[in-house]
Specification:
Four copies of one chain form a homotetramer. Chain A has eight helices and 20 strands. In chain A, strands 1, 2, 3, 4, 5, 6, 7, 8, 9, 10, 11 and 19 form a twelve-stranded mixed sheet that branches. Chain A has a four-stranded antiparallel sheet with strand order 12-13-17-15.
Amino acid sequence: MVIFVTFAQTISKYMKRTLLCLLIAGLSLAGSAQTRKNIQIPNLHGFVTLKCDFHIHTVFSDGTVWPTVRVAEAYREGLDAIAITDHIEYRPYNGDLKTSHNRSYDLAAPVAKAAGIILIKGSEITRAMPPGHFNALFLTDSEELDQPDYLDALRAAQKQNAFIFWNHPGWDAQQPDTTLWWAEHTKIWEQGAMMGIEVVNGTEYFPEAHQWCLEKNLTLLGNTDVHDPIQAHSDFADGTHRTMTLVFAKEATAEGIREALLNRRTAIYNRETLIGEERYLKELFEKALDIKVEKTNNTTVRITIKNNSDFIFHLNKTKHDERLVYFRNYTIVPQGTHVISVRLQDGAQGGDVNFCVENLLTQPNQGMPYSIKILP
Amino acid sequence: MVIFVTFAQTISKYMKRTLLCLLIAGLSLAGSAQTRKNIQIPNLHGFVTLKCDFHIHTVFSDGTVWPTVRVAEAYREGLDAIAITDHIEYRPYNGDLKTSHNRSYDLAAPVAKAAGIILIKGSEITRAMPPGHFNALFLTDSEELDQPDYLDALRAAQKQNAFIFWNHPGWDAQQPDTTLWWAEHTKIWEQGAMMGIEVVNGTEYFPEAHQWCLEKNLTLLGNTDVHDPIQAHSDFADGTHRTMTLVFAKEATAEGIREALLNRRTAIYNRETLIGEERYLKELFEKALDIKVEKTNNTTVRITIKNNSDFIFHLNKTKHDERLVYFRNYTIVPQGTHVISVRLQDGAQGGDVNFCVENLLTQPNQGMPYSIKILP
Amino acid sequence: MVIFVTFAQTISKYMKRTLLCLLIAGLSLAGSAQTRKNIQIPNLHGFVTLKCDFHIHTVFSDGTVWPTVRVAEAYREGLDAIAITDHIEYRPYNGDLKTSHNRSYDLAAPVAKAAGIILIKGSEITRAMPPGHFNALFLTDSEELDQPDYLDALRAAQKQNAFIFWNHPGWDAQQPDTTLWWAEHTKIWEQGAMMGIEVVNGTEYFPEAHQWCLEKNLTLLGNTDVHDPIQAHSDFADGTHRTMTLVFAKEATAEGIREALLNRRTAIYNRETLIGEERYLKELFEKALDIKVEKTNNTTVRITIKNNSDFIFHLNKTKHDERLVYFRNYTIVPQGTHVISVRLQDGAQGGDVNFCVENLLTQPNQGMPYSIKILP
Amino acid sequence: MVIFVTFAQTISKYMKRTLLCLLIAGLSLAGSAQTRKNIQIPNLHGFVTLKCDFHIHTVFSDGTVWPTVRVAEAYREGLDAIAITDHIEYRPYNGDLKTSHNRSYDLAAPVAKAAGIILIKGSEITRAMPPGHFNALFLTDSEELDQPDYLDALRAAQKQNAFIFWNHPGWDAQQPDTTLWWAEHTKIWEQGAMMGIEVVNGTEYFPEAHQWCLEKNLTLLGNTDVHDPIQAHSDFADGTHRTMTLVFAKEATAEGIREALLNRRTAIYNRETLIGEERYLKELFEKALDIKVEKTNNTTVRITIKNNSDFIFHLNKTKHDERLVYFRNYTIVPQGTHVISVRLQDGAQGGDVNFCVENLLTQPNQGMPYSIKILP
């Protein structure tokens, strides 16, 4: 990755020669250059699949890293876009840090540009429950969101054409026993200020919120809400990936992401699980796999499945013609090729190999049904 | 990877139904399908770079795995070709195992074919020092090599047009203090029965043998000599690779490999080190890297290096025009992009950025010199 | 680990000097000495917790490694005991291998002794369903089990005082749709030849079989059924462990294990999950953790939990006094120390922090309830 | 690890309920509790071996993390002591951050106390070459070091009884071609303001500086100089450790460390290498290993070596009685047990097994000689 040098703005006299050295040093010391790795995820027909994290903190609220670190992390993990969303109302370090709400974005922006990462300006409106926390994306001036009344804050975001979503709706610190929808949420939703919900926060999944998204046509989002260095949570080098929102965009730009979010073309990728509408998950599944069905003789069928993606798929057999004898459950590993055998019994000539893909959630806590057809 | 099923040859009556189940089971239980990963290594102009291991054991000599395991390991690690080279004279399990010298090849061949791995028939002629151990590749009948006199064994291999090389010439069990060339080696070499030397065995490098190859025009080889499951030594999943011979072949076939070996178009890849002739290592280096040189102003030059390979390169500055100020040493990481800064001092307009690539050994224990030119 | 040298039994004349060298070589080449690592699991009151795998194959049935490899793997992974249980009726390599059913044990035994691993002599009776496959442990002569009728095979094992258990009862190759208990199993059980069931095979859990164990007082077992090198399935170096049966034994001997198996003092450790009777899982949980409860003021309680084991525990809140506000779910990581905060509301002075430990299965698919008491 | 909550100092009215929730949340969200792991390194006779890193940056100079992160990293990696040493003269973020030179220490101190990490107050005096950069440890007020003249800065540190050492003496940004000792260094050394040298910075070793330490009785130090999150450089979870100074202290306190530094009781641990005086490295080697020598018969000796440490040792045979036949080179792996065979030839009854431990550097780039005695 390109290695970025930061220059001091003011140079006192005796520092001059030092800085000359530091400048060169900055380049050569950073020998531990960053490597960008990509998770293999297919594009959809007409859309590019963008890997995004829309909920991230820095020292400018209660995070523990400088904003540029967030870009370096995103670069390393092959992300396409991030939003830094520092809290408006909670800034524990403001005794030490000057706190324009725009500052973390401004510091990260040039580095993001150089690294080819789409940086979206965001902020987190941070209130007690109800209504809890909300992220506003695509802001032009975060300062405007610093309002005593949360409704005013949301309105300020709307005035900037922000995309707004409810964060961690089932966070136990605010909803100790159950994930509740409060009257305030109805109000916010009715005034058009809730366009999506963070159905996964960190690695925690909120099935009730998944249901609300289906009922109310809200966009599904999954983000890290990372405060510490990302490696404290997931070690990309070790093969674990951060939670992300997959955005199916017409183009790889901030505007492309906004259009896709507004039209609910997203899926959530949380550890082994994908959460989204059936039309998107089904296409991801089919684009990820090459499936070949061959009869080896009258009673045996060989299904060869080549997984070209980094997804894993867990299949569980569902109701089926019992004359087709096949696996009870089966795991398709990332980048693996599998040969599955089906036995045709008692005169069966063909039929449907039915199963549920357990880790593709098209409904709350419910996998996606799928069939592979064996022609007679 | 394709999952291979082994069938029992004879089915006693009461086993019938069991086997029917095992057949299906073989396919579905082996859910832990193999994933093939590739090390990114560039091809050379006119040649495909094949990743090969020409020294491998199984239970048919003193190894501890069934021959098919060797194919599965090679598949998983992205190798193109292997030779199983069981000892002719040392078969500690022959009280338990029938011991045709051709058997390990015969068992592995159909699996290799299905997996797309080139399997080369080989054997290891196993004698005390002098002359030590020799591998013969491209055999048609290993049985012929079972001869009391080692010269007869070598002659039998030559009669089959084998490619023959001296294994682990500095193995301390046979050469306790120094790596010696004995009169017997001169004799073997003069009769054309030593065409190469295993300059790296496991991860051990023999610089004296490297020198002999240069002097006598012998092919450089590096192999694992693996006896146990390969993961007991190198964990490919963890990013460590086995020692291998890179073969620059006109075509990816056994015949293509033989032609390349006979014409000494090889390099050895041992941990971070490549060993080979300068013409090959230089081309690998240049094909691996995109190098861009830009003057940012009168006194500063920015060299951007993008490494498209999985190789690492360690650069150490060598003698140079001191008006060019640059790194003392620098590491180019696998798949990384680096920006290196060069300062032009005291009126220098351009010049050569000279360094040695420490881990590209073109001479025994000696790195490859290289220059990046800055035009005035 | 001690490095073992195998000697050829017969030395032809010209091999003499070679072998002398090989002998020394065997020792020095095997430089990749084995390191034994231990999973931290507490002992129970009066019992030592032994880590065991009672279902393992070698080339002497349809496995792919020499028997000694199984001992080396067990050593490296910190196991205390293994049983090699090659199939009686399924030996695909018997065209190549002499096939006394006792041979794999005999080959592994001296190596196990030197490595301090308890090696239990076993065999797998391998039939179609019903009744499927059964493992017999603590055999004296496996040859006696080679009988046309499976009932005779089981009787032969009983005559040797074997501990016998039903393997992979829900293996889809034999039970394609549901895990069924057949009339044959009742018969076997009634004649005392089914003393336990393999409730976990590989990483597959059979909840129906878990239920049968509870109802019929059968011993719970979890084993790998490994055929390939173990690293093809779980990479201990990477922090994943193989499935194992934890045996709570009075002494670390084969006899101690037998006594514990007969008295059902076991638990199964499968990835993050433990399966067993509540009395054992509860004690493991309590011995693994140091729990300290402190009131920091009238309304806040701090619970400090130090996990001294390598287990992970997933806690989910259950029904509770709603005046105690605490986490909804919480994960206690291996070797980690956690501070959990409980808020006392509306005048509560104390009460029970109730939760379910989701990954301690005391009933089929059901976690273990637990409470931490806050004294008023 | 204890999870630390930071509270906002001022609570505006509408934030009240939010904060109450955040407080509890802070505790439960931080579920990713830290695990402390220890590298196994033996203590020396009369001294405890403390793992220390004395050169660390935060956002309060040109690092990228908040000071508390440094404590969390140290905790996780099993370190005993760290010094945060932000630059006095180079603070690129001081447009955003209030910049008392004491602030990073003050922020980290309470967290360090809670975590049981010894936090040493330090600062880096940051000048062009000569004289380059110097770290001052055990300061009471870093503000005093902010002086136009570097000699005044050093004097201010001396007045506070600081331990002062020269950082990265061969840093190529300041010493482009060779590691030079300048007249200024003589001056500093003569006035007692250079008590040690950072012979390893990051993973770069400066053999010239090693030599100067030997000649001038200076303390050897090795530190990370980390600016980014530590995992960007070394992944402790993956088995790589950061560079550290091992301090052989009479007690595990800041005062104990100072006394040991002043008396040069240190060693540097850089990847596989240890650098230090022979008396310390030899004792570490002997305390790490159990060595047992047995004659198995008249001509064979078995040396069993059990490595109880996480160190690796690379042995290379040196000049020896050639009647003792043994390995040419040998690697003793961490926590491994090895059996080494020695053959006694031509009537030898005993003698010395001589070798050099290549990765224990007692002189610049030179390993430590060692002998294992075989009694007649």
